[in-house]
Description:
This protein is α/β, with parallel strands linked by helices and 618 residues long. 37% of the residues lie in helices and 25% in strands. Bound molecules: magnesium ion. The site of magnesium ion (MG) has 4 residues, from loops.
Amino acid sequence: MRYSIATVCLSGTLRQKIEAIAAAGFQAIEIFENDLITHNGPASEIRRMTEDYGLEIVTFQPFRDFEGLPEPYRQRAFDRAERKFDLMATLGTDLLMVCSSCHPQALGGIRRAADDFYELGERAAQRNMRIAFEALAWGRHVYDYRDSWEIVRQADHARVGLCLDTFHIFSRGTELQSMLNIPGDRIFLVQVADAPFLSMDHLSWSRHYRCFPGQGELPLEQFMTALSATGYDGPFSLEVFNDQFRAGSPEKTAIDGYRSLVFVNDASEQRDQQVAEPLSAICAPSEIQFIEFALNTTEKQNLAQLLSQLGFVHVASHRKKAVELWRQGRINLLMNLEPESFAQRFHAQHGVSVCAFGLGFAHVDSLLKRAAALNFTPTYGNPEADTHGIAAIAGPGGALLYLVDGAEQPAHWEREFVWHEHTPAAWLSRVDHVAMSMSYEEMLHSALLYRAMFGMQATPSVDVSDPGGLVKSQVMQTTDRAVSFALNSSQAQATVSKQILERYTGTGVNHIALQATDIFAVAEQLQQVGTELMVVPENYYDDLVARFGLSDKQRAQLEKYSILYDEDEQGVYYQLFTRLFAGRFCFELVQRQGYQGFGTPNAQLRATMQAHELRVAC
Ligand code: MG
């Protein structure tokens, strides 16, 4: 199995695409016809470029509207194929990918199509070429891989084989059992793509929402298992049409593409061990062990004041650096003002922000091997200045994700910090989740990172209405729900999500949710010390009463403290938001009583109130 990618997956000129594909580690490439047509140079030059980078061209694609045509269209289709064979000879590839016809004149019938493919096979044989036939999900007569296989089977020509594409199979909900009847050597090409489950026409879904394996919701492990049973050992090629990828960085997209293939090949029950060593086992984080802020002196004073009000205590100071540890329950917040540090470089670029997360793991050693195999290169900071010895990988937006050995947890604090005599209040016990704003491209990258590295699963994405437009929101969480990151992205300029992105000049934290043991007691405390909380309109509470049948007393208590409320089948949820700090992030205090969600029905209210805060602040 050779790892390959179609040029249509990436942005840039054909030369930029080829360079990015080779640099990411692919062995092979599919040349998409439009990339060839728009290339300002002969096909022989494209062949030279790919050869210079050691890339094999596994196919030229797509050849459209071929089968089932009456005359004179049929003859024209064969003439067209001959011209493509000429081109392929110059390119140095022998495989033409033919997708099922959408031609308005195309006629149905398996036998008719099989005859056409037999004749195409004869012509291909004379030119030493081969044909791979793919059933498009929106083909006029052929839209099911079982039919395209039957046509290939009846054509019965050594030069004619099948192309399987995971999007076309899963988007029509076709069963995979029939794949087991297809001999692996009759499959000439496998194209792989993931996608979110959406209710829309197949063509638009395919053209705009395909994504790399691990970024969507298709059960690709099942496909891999069925494919392995056929004995297929040909090219394994990404074919992903995605609006964000076509607008993003070709280098970054190509790297994510390659790691998605490593991940999906490993996820199947019978991985192809010729391609790579098996990845070391997934190890999920057990908790968010610390959150580190990059800030200047004034910002630190202001944040310290807010943290004190929330019940945090400055429990320790770094022995050598300008770093303070503030703690409450199992929540550790670091404030880093150390000059020349990663945090201060991050601050220079993004302003006051979260520059690192510490995630606790039981088996960091195997995680480091997995990170290296997936090209999430671990770093250890500056060996002279950073004595903690904790490895980190780059997380969303370049903030560090420290991989903290769970057993090591007390030791690294003890070693690095001088402790003060304080007993922290414990109104708040642990980090519940962290919500971040990012571009949609970064959201896809992050989803792959959390899933491939840590085995975190995605909740179905939801659209949240913000006064400035729609925000796409998706939560990545561990199966035990101990660690959750909510990822938010919006194309609309005026949304809170997008405004925060602009303030940070990139990905940034929107809110840090902390679990309260008694949210009403904390709220009372916050009111007494005058902490500014997010204002909640009276109408919200009228609606709550109507929706959940709350008593007057319950309503009054919620309204008194600006607490939001939600219920699901498992229980109830209370939420309380501070105002935005520096117009960027806030703290959310939550109390869960069996509730499993993240207060999505209240997200529009939060966005509306935060939009108001940002307007007033400007
Ligand atoms: Mg395809």
